[in-house]
Structures are given as structure tokens and as C-alpha cells.
Amino acid sequence: MPAPDTPILDAPRRITNAWSILPGWLPVPGMGALPVNSFLLKGREPVLVDTGLAALGDRFIETLAGEVDLEDLKWIWLSHMDADHVGNLSRVLELAPNARVVTNFLGMGKMNLAGLDVSRVHLLSPGDVFEAGGHRLIPVRPPYYDAPETIGFFDEGERVFFAADSFGALLPTTAGDIEDIEDNVLRDGLVGWSSIDAPWLAHMDQSALGGMLAALDRADPDFVLSGHLPLARNGIARLTRHVANAYGRGTSSAIDPLAVEQVMAQLG
Ligand SMILES: [Fe+2]
Ligand SMILES: [Fe+2]
Fold first, then answer.
1. d(C-alpha 57, C-alpha 86), whole Å
2. Is the dihedral of CA 174, 180, 185, 188 positive or negative?
3. CATH number for the domain running over 8-267
4. Residues of the chain whose pLDDT is less than 50?
5. Nearest ligand to the CA atom of 227
6. Ligand closest to the CA atom of residue 167
7. Where in this chain does the record put each Metallo-beta-lactamase domain (predicted)?
């Protein structure tokens, strides 16, 4: 489908037994469109990951309510505090009285600065594993990002990696899965978006970046969920290859306890 003229939210799609995607698209004039996705983990303790675009407020709430009883929503995982990830946070908090916000210290500070209610924050400290309804979400700092509070996760049981802003791509047309995107289009989309969203990537230590990408390749998630990419089923190697070719190669050993290499090595 061609890029839309206004923000849209497509129908939710099942990813695994537990995970669904709420796929949104934001037109970027002259450049195509950027996916702006939220994700939902269903089960005993439903988790919403990010809250979409404010411009899609009614549609977002209606779509979410079609997937989960808002009274039952237990957690709202915020990847970071950018407007395209917290667009409907206040409304969801209002309509989902039992939901608590999962974020880290800086995320909570930014919520406070934005005048948002922090009384329902569940604070993630470095090294914490987040458990919800039998799912273990292991926090991990994605290889690149545009805000320092950014926190992704690896769902061990479902073999799902949530990359936040990492691996986002500006695309000329909409798509449901990266398998439907030609390789050069995907490459240009990844490089185009990362050069806008994380320009520092071009100056990053090449061996450190290579080490993170290699660790993700070894972890080999069944699904990569990015806030800004269509679904990537078994697609990690394709994504890391394009990023490595654009920005760096090599490997390194990391000392950051949240580093991809460290976390993935513990997954066994
Ligand atoms: Fe962002
Ligand atoms: Fe974003």
C-alpha cells in the first residue's frame, strides 16, 4: 500500500500466542511513512508496550479496548518518553485504572517533568527482570536510541526482542512484514531513519556496535519488534547486516551490565 496522507492505525495482528502488534503509520512528507507501533502481551497480566500517537487517540483506545478489557490491563511498558511512544499515556491511565507504568529512573523523572502521574510507576532498576503473568521480560538497552532512558526487552519464553527505536525504517510504502520489503528498500529505510533518529551512530565505536549486533545475531529472536519497523519474523540477521554495513563491523567485550552481549550470554 502507498504511504498514507494522515496517521493511520491498522487492525491489530497476532504475532505469537501471547503477543500482538498494533501497527500504526505516520506520514513523513517527501520521505514516505514511518511505522509507529505499539504491542500487547495478553495473558494473566496484560502488558501494553508504548501508547501510540496522540493524533490517533480515539482509534487507538477503541482498538486497544477491542483487544483487552481495559480494567484488566495491568502494565504499560514505556520504551522511552518521546511523544510517539507516550501519545495516549494519560488516556490509557485514565481508562485502565489497574494499570501501572513500567519505566526506569530517568523515564519517571521525565514523566514528572511532563506533568504526568508518577504515583502508578513500577520502577525498573538496572539488573531487574520484569515478570508479568508468567512472562519474563529481560530489560536490555537496544543498540541505538534517541533518548537515554530507552529500555527494550527480550521475552525469553516467546523469543521476542523488543528493540524500541532501534531498527526503525522510513519506508516508501506500508508493509505488514519486512519479508515483503525489497532488500535495498529496507537498507535505505533503516539507514535513512537511523541517520535522523540516532545520528551519533556514525561516530560510535565500530567494534562496540559490532559486538552488540553480533550478540543479537547469536540470540536469534523469532521476532524483532521495533517501534518503527513492520514485523520482523526471523529477521534479525537481515537487520543487523544492514546496520553493520552502514556503521561498523567487528566485536568487543562489554562491561555494561545491560549490554546486549552480557544479557544475551546469560540466556544460554
Ligand atoms: Fe524515540
Ligand atoms: Fe520513536
1. 11
2. positive
3. 3.60.15.10
4. 250-254
5. 2
6. 2
7. 35-228
Tally helices (H) and strands (E) across the chain: 8, 16
Q: What's the gap in Å between 55 CA and the centre of ligand 2?
A: 15
pLDDT of residue 250: 45
The answer to whether residues 216 and 240 touch, using CB atoms and an 8 Å cutoff, is yes
Q: Could you tell me the three cell numbers for 44?
A: 494473566
Distance 13 CA to ligand 2 centre (A): 20
Output the pLDDT for position 255: 53
DSSP class of 219 = H
What separation in Å is there between the alpha carbon of 240 and the centre of ligand 1?
19
CA 192 to centroid of ligand 2, rounded, Å:
14
Length of the chain (residues): 268
Q: Which ligand is nearest to the CA of 81?
A: 1
Write the Ramachandran bin of 141: left for phi over 0, alpha for psi from -120 to 50, otherwise beta: beta
Q: Which residues pair with 100 in a beta bridge?
A: 75
pLDDT tens, residue by residue, 87-131? 999 999 999 999 999 999 999 999 999 999 999 999 999 999 999
**Ligand number with the minimum distance to the CA of 80:** 1
- What's phi and psi for 84, nearest 5 deg? -80, 0
* pLDDT value of position 248: 75
pLDDT, position 267? 86
Q: How far is CA 29 from CA 4, 6, 84, 182, 263, in A?
A: 10, 10, 17, 21, 38
Q: Which ligand is nearest to the CA of 170?
A: 2
Q: How far is the CA of 78 from the centre of ligand 1 (A)?
A: 11
Per-residue pLDDT, 256: 57
